[in-house]
Design goal:
Length: 97
Amino acid sequence: MVNPDELLCVGRTNGAYGVRGSIRVVPFEGGEVLAQTRRWFLTPLRGETVPLEVTSIKVHGNVLLATVAGCDSKEKADALRGRISVLRADFPDPGED
């Protein structure tokens, strides 16, 4: 289990997209970090944070369409409701100005 202090919330799920198990993710910022990492964490409204293995990501307007390992139906995708976080270590270095 990952330490909650190591996670940064960067978006939220917004239901299923299509019938093959893709999920819509609304990023809180531009979504660059979500697009760069395939290791996400889902925190449902009630329950424990669980890791998600993202297999593909597509930009669709203001949302991201993500395919997650083990999620192959609309019903499974609809069940993935909550906040999306990534590890602090997955953020790029801020660089120098």
